[in-house]
Amino acid sequence: MANTGMGGGYGPGGGPQSGPGSTEYWQAMADSAERETRRRRMLRIVAVAAGAVVLGGGALALALTMSDDGPTPRAQQSSSAPPPEPATVTPKLTLGPTAKLDTATGHEGQSLLLGGTPQGFAESETGAVDTGADFTVSALVRIDVDTTPKAAVSQNGTQFFSFFLGRDDASDKLRNRWVFKVQTDSEIAKSATAASQAEAVTGRWTLLTGVYSKKDGTISLYVDGVLAQTSEAPRVLASTGPLEFGRIRYSGLWVKPWNGAIADVRVWKKALTAEQVDAVRSAGKDAPSPFARFVAP
């Protein structure tokens, strides 16, 4: 009698059965199920990859995680925003009607641009120094005229300036010279000056640094980091500020308006040494940190 069971039977032609009860049938079904699983897995990968979009400061990136049946896709947040920069305290400036902050020829970064008029000035909200103690002030300046005295940075009282850094033209001896000048008393012609030996060059950026040492009773001017002159200064007229950019107070009037550009003004509450002044010029690692900085690069 022929075998009529569900497994291992033969068909009419004597060959193996291919119906639901055969081994071949179940093997074919298993192969089909495995193909379907692989197809669904690929569809999920394509769907996740197609859905990667930019969201705010980051982007959705495709990542793979391992599971029991192989790698599967997972969306992961990846931030492309740069890390925050260190906070830098920059005292604010109040600008005069014709003063402006902008780029200037020959200098990278922002500059204070002044046109040599009484309306071209700026003053700080903070940053004034105690002129009865040691202090240092530096500024990167460009002068665009070679006549009449001009003040880049100053600190003033009600009638007279305490100090100013800039260019003088007050006498034959100081004709077109860089100067660091201090008022020693609240009277006309009561001042001390440290000046450059060489003339100021118009249209060229120059680093001016003025140093007052109360202990030594001297003021010193450095031009591009090199000592130009040290002069006696028994005292500096007291004032409370604010710092002024582009003008000074003299005999109750605002005078000496700057014509050119001013940048990277720094103030220290101490008398810098020659080595420290040079480190500031070269941005060396030993450069002392100022307590106030304006129009910084």
UniProtKB/TrEMBL annotation:
Pfam families found in the cross-reference section: Laminin_G_3
- Biased composition regions of type Gly residues, renumbered to the chain: 1-18
Instruction: Give all residue intervals belonging to the LamG-like jellyroll fold domain.
Output: 133-275
Q: Which InterPro entries match?
A: ConA-like_dom_sf, LamG-like
Q: Which residues form a coiled coil?
A: none
Transmembrane regions listed in the UniProt entry: 45-66
Give the source's domain of life in one word. Bacteria
Identify the stretch(es) annotated as Disordered. 1-24, 66-102
- Gene3D superfamilies this protein is in? 2.60.120.200
**Protein name, as recorded:** LamG-like jellyroll fold domain-containing protein
Keywords (alphabetical) are: Disulfide bond, Membrane, Signal, Transmembrane, Transmembrane helix
Upper taxonomic classification of the species?
Bacteria, Bacillati, Actinomycetota, Actinomycetes, Kitasatosporales
